[in-house]
Amino acid sequence: MGTTGVRAQGRLVGLDAARFLALLGMMATHLLATRSDSGDPTWVAEVLSGRASALFALLAGVSLSLMTGGPRPLRGEARVARSAGLLVRAVAVGLLGLVLGGVDSGVAVILVNYAVLLAIGVLLVGRSARLLAVLCLLATLVTPVLLWGVRPGLPPRGYDSPSIEGLEEPGRLVSEVLFTGYYPVLVWSAYLLAGMALGRLDLRRVPGRVLGLVAVAAALVSAAAELVSDRLLAREGTVRRLDRDLWLLVGRDDEEALERLHRLIDTGLYGQTPVDGAWQWLLVSAPHSSTTFDLLRTGGAALAVVALLVWALRALDGPARHLVVVLTGAGAMTLTLYTLHVLMSSDLLPPAEGRQGTVVQVGVVVVAGAVVALLGRRGPLEGLVALAARGTERLVRGPSGGR
Question: Could you tell me the residue ranges of all domains in the chain?
């Protein structure tokens, strides 16, 4: 195969490495404790909560741009055919997500929301990096306010993942996927747009200093968002107003309102701030709070990770490249391994819960990814989805197959 059994040289190793980190990070937030016995956030909450899933969503945008021409977007019939194939991918991922959502795994399955993000992204695959960046900024600033405004008029949310059962109430299902669920697509479109903007750069040739600048700027935005949010929340009036809303969330078991508030913020919310809560909730940067500060904190971190890994690893060649490809092989088959993780987190597949089960899950994911990379293969689900997408593209192009 010309690559001694590993994935083709055309892939950007840094992107697969980033997907690998996103997958392991999401698994960690599902398998490891985010709160200590005393209620304080663990390192998992402080480092990974919100950031891992944001990285996953941002990488979806990068992939969309790369699959539609990268720095030179496809035009005409080629774009139409590729868009049709991408929509088929989105439908396949969404259907898988509905099935996994019905599995009692304790995991907030992201795949249905991810599929809707992909479908939305298809509408924007012809746009430039500059326009996508502007749209990302607008989404970051505006969609959290829209979400805060519309949620009181929507059906009460559930806390189960979108599933086939949810099709019995399609209005509620759509409401939860777009607005009230754990990963509200309205707000999460900001991550997708950031990734699409990055993917419209020529990631193979753009100067390293540009990627370095992106990484540093994104990291600074992430840190600044958390710092500014903390400063705003420390104001006495803000704490007092949010403390009244906390009656409904955590009661009054703790002595200090500020301590109670920061424990909640550090360990995360469940997709958004309290319905009918004060506008000051828009100032928090808690993981999965769907505020502007949350988007800046987690999205900035995700963008920094991707830019840094692409810059650091794209020049690798020979044995060093092969080693990284094998070690991060799971990043090239995240759909298959995320599905396996959900199933292993349920009673359908071993291992059992607990520390040993966590070690086994991580070991299975890393080893499976390495083996598939060494064989130069796709993950099984990735292969099936790609087959359906290619068939759709050929059908749309017709007998001529022209571009």
Answer: 13-267+292-397
Residues in the chain: 403
> CA quadruple 265, 344, 100, 121: dihedral positive or negative?
positive
pLDDT tens per residue, range 362-393:
999 999 999 999 999 999 999 999 999 999 99
* pLDDT tens digits along 194-234: 999 999 999 999 999 999 999 999 999 999 999 999 899 88
* pTM, rounded to two decimals: 0.93
- Inter-residue contact 121 to 64 (CB < 8 Å): yes
Distance, CA of 300 to CA of 296 (rounded, Å): 5
Report yes or no: 180 and 50 within 8 Å, Cβ to Cβ: no
Taking the mean position of all CA atoms in its chain, how far away is CA 74? 25
CA-based nearest residue to 225, from 305, 300, 148, 138: 300
User: Which helix (H) or strand (E) covers residue 325, if one does?
Assistant: helix 318-327
Q: Taking Cα atoms as reference points, which of 330, 331, 335 lies closest to residue 383?
A: 335
